[in-house]
Design a protein that fits this description.
There is one protein chain. The chain is an all-alpha fold. It is elongated. Helices cover about 45% and strands about 0% of the residues. It has a domain at about 5-90.
Length: about 130
């Protein structure tokens, strides 16, 4: 079993990938990097930072404390802004409206046969509720 990685180390690895790609990486891109580079953590290691928007906000806070991370902050702005816009919308309206729809379907029939050779070729005509 491996020990948990330091938060600073995880953020630096992720920031390095951001700089390499020139954008905020997707989970698939993180997984691909982890497969190709032995020293890069698996995508599950970043789950402790929360959803993508929350993670982007955490990276922004981390980079704001350091010099030379302006490029990374710029990559996180749109993603972190999405989170703040959602939280403002959530305050205004706590209710979410939507709908559920049902699609009518034909009655499902079940074939019952004791003979394995005739199962595929000759259905018995019985239905799930015993009606024809």
């Amino acid at each position: 079993m491996q020990a948990a990685r330091d938060e600073h180390e995880l953020l630096e690895k992720f920031i390095g990938l951001m700089r390499e790609l020139g954008k905020f990486p997707t989970a698939n891109e993180v997984e691909l990097k982890a497969r190709s580079a032995n020293d890069f953590p698996w995508h599950n290691a970043f789950a402790r930072f929360g959803p993508k928007q929350q993670f982007a906000a955490r990276i922004q806070d981390y980079c704001a404390e350091r010099i030379g991370y302006d490029d990374v902050v710029a990559l996180c702005v749109d993603i972190a802004r999405t989170q703040s816009a959602r939280s403002v919308e959530g305050v205004e309206s706590a209710e979410t409206f939507g709908f559920v729809y049902l699609i009518p379907s034909a009655q499902m029939t079940l074939s019952v046969s004791r003979h394995t050779g005739t199962r595929d070729s000759k259905p018995s005509g019985r239905t799930a509720n015993g009606l024809r």
